[in-house]
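tmp note - Cell filamentation protein Fic
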Amino acid sequence: MDFKGRSGNYVRQPTGYSAFIPKDLPPDPDLQVDSEMQSLLSRADRALGRLDGSIQTLPNTDLFVMMYIRKEAVLSSQIEGTKASLNDLLKAEAEIYDHEIPKDVDEVVNYINAMNHGMRRLSELPLSVRLIREIHEKLLHGVRGHKLQPGELRRSQNWIGPGGSSLHSASFVPPPHEVAAQALSNLEKFLHEDDHIPPLIKIGLAHAQFETIHPFLDGNGRVGRLLIAFFLYEQKLLLSPVLYLSHYFKAHRQEYYDRLQATRVNGDWESWIKFFLTGVGDVAEQATETAREIVSLREQHRSIISDRFGNSAGKANRILEYLYRRPMVSINAVRDELGISYPNASALVDKFVSNGLLIEITGQARNRKFFYAPYINLFSNL
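out:
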């Protein structure tokens, strides 16, 4: 399919390079929803519904959400070149000193802060340019890119391409900054327009348009991926923000970039939307299975505690619930959580370790800290 000019056109700028000037959404001619796209949309809608239902069966929805956000933060940041893993992030949160933890773990922490900030703010204001700017500021605060106008729309030209490329050799040159600002404002209007576009198709179009506008000097990819979760939550397609596509985009990175570029060069919105809907369906199904595995894991571990922990089973179950809030723990934390002596807390932790529920991660004799590895592994394998 070739609709050149449907999404916009390259326009030569006074200094000699060409920048892409996008047309506003929705596409014109209208998106062609064939039987394949309709099938993918139906599958994605069903998968989201099952995911939402599965999340409600969890002992505490917020626990799953926080762990899932951690995983998304890691994957979304890795797409942008960070090296930090989920275990690195958890160690950083537990304040465990490890010289092998990549320094860019702070970028992952910022991603979590940006996500949490956005979710709080959605109760006060709509998904908007203002909120996008706030998210961006949180994302780049004090890390790589902090000198590139955090929270501010760019005031200069940017471009996308391999290292060493220039405006004249870039893979893609977004619109000049004054055009980008207006295009972003128009995108906000499109998101809230009362039309008949299915929400999943609307956010698929909007994500691609945001990446084309590229309104910031850094962090566009991460903000663009966050917008998907925020929109689905705002539209009440999900009661909790638990659909994150970074895993899918990372696994299909080249196709992701190719499909985005095809919307610009050939006006091929249809192939992009089919790719996007496939990702929504795949990721929602994976997340649903993870939610089921969490319920099963919790029941298995409650049975182990009931069978093997004797008189300390009640206290052990309280720590088990604690571990779903924070899957890393110290003996001092157990002592404080239960209000018991240090020796008793140490003995309880030892029972968790001997039964395979916790693993010690510092390798130290003192100030030991432990991971709830069986739970963490459910997300590490995503």
